[in-house]
Amino acid sequence: MSVGDDMENQMPTKHSRGIGSRGGDQDGFGPPTRPVAPLVYAEFGDDDELSPQWTSWLIPMFVVANVIVFFVVMFVNNCPKNSESHDPNHHCVARFLGRFSFEHLRNNPLFGPSSLTLEKLGSLDWYRVVEKHQAWRLLTCIWLHAGVIHLATNMLSIVFIGTRLEQQFGFVRIGWIYVMSGMGGSILSSLFIRKGISVGASGALFGLLGSMLSELLTNWTIYSNKIAAFLTLLFVIVINLGIGILPYVDNFAHVGGFLTGFLLGFLLLARPQIKWFAREHMPQGRCVTPKYMPYQYILWLLSLALLIVGFVVALVLLFKGEDGNDHCHWCRYLSCIPTSGWSCDSV
């Protein structure tokens, strides 16, 4: 179980801004396969109640939507007309694709459109979100991708992780986690990064990953091999967040999406106790087991409070024009750590 690179590659634009491509090449880690006591449910004929299976259709629809949006972006980009006509030395890649050909690799190494096209179609840009009051960019940016490589790695990861979650918990809960995590990543990114534009579904992707961790924790008592699953998932998360310290990688989108999904997992993915399903088979007058454990209720309340406070405070600070780096001087190292090999001044 491993999750590969999830990088946010940025490149300079005409106005010294960069593209942040929230990407991910992730071999997903699904929730632990089966609760501890399926045989208990076999006795009552209720094994399916413990781990209900829905047909996954929303995650595939998200993938299809992202692919369609990418084709629309490339159609609008029209590299041969909009780039080569302005700069004769600018040569598009894969010209046989016509208006769907890619920008020169010096401008976009991910085989995709120009930064100006992404900026026009809804990428995340602090100036436009705050100064131009275009808050809708907090949502639209998660449906845009910087290139074919970026799109392919993100979509493969979403299919691998999201399909399993949707089969276990249904499209409503996983859909909420996906969208809200994407917005959470966009909000935190806007608070700390002002010099570039950013696109991609990595905030939503990290939200699904965070929800898997909280789902494991809140349903701890019903899983087997829980320690191994926890350590594996923790390793996957640390590696992917660690990749975010590379330059031109918007790790704030990753962190924001992960924290949002982590809290939403406690709210939406708690499973009832095993004995609660057997309540219909209990003798009359016998005390019925509560549906959820006391600690699950506590985690639910804490997560709800933190989620509401976090979104309200972050949005207030963002639209007041506050720079998150002024309130957290060390937070910049979450996104880029300067070394002798690179500088973070332009990030």
What is this entry, summarized?
This protein has one domain (8-334): Rhomboid-like (Rhomboid-like fold). 52% of the residues lie in helices and 3% in strands.
Explain what you see.
The protein has 347 residues and is mainly alpha-helical. The chain is 52% helix and 3% strand. The chain has a single domain (8-334), classed as Rhomboid-like fold (Up-down Bundle), CATH 1.20.1540. It has 14 helices and 4 strands. Strands 1-2-4-3 form a 4-stranded mixed beta sheet. Helix 3 (58-77) packs antiparallel against helix 8. The protein is globular, with a radius of gyration of 22 Å. The two termini are 31 Å apart. Mean pLDDT is 82; it is low at 1-18 and 23-49.
List the main descriptive attributes of the protein structure presented here.
single chain, 347 residues, mainly alpha, 14 helices, 4 strands, disordered N terminus
